[in-house]
Amino acid sequence: MSVADKHTKRVAVIGAGWAGCAAAVELADQGYQVSLLEAARTLGGRGRMVEVNGLSLDNGQHILLGAYTESLRLMHKVGVDTGSALLRLPLQMCYPPGPDGMHFVAPRLPAPLHLLWALIRATGLSREDKLSLARFSTTARWMGWQLYTDCSVSELLQRFDQTERLSRLMWTPLCIAALNTPPERASAQVFLNVLRDSLGAKRAASDMLVPRVDLSALFPQHAAEYVKQRSGQVLTGATVKSIRRETAGWALDCAALDGADALFDAIIIATGPENASRLLSDIPGTEVSSAVPPFSFEPITTCYLQYAADVRLPRAFFALADWPEQGLWGQFVFDRGQLHAGQAGLLAVVVSASSQAIQLGNEALATALARQLASMLNMPTLATPLWQQVISEKRATFSCTPALARPENLTSAPGLLLAGDYTAGEYPATLEAAVRSGTKAAQALSQSAQA
Question: Global pTM?
Answer without folding.
Answer: 0.96
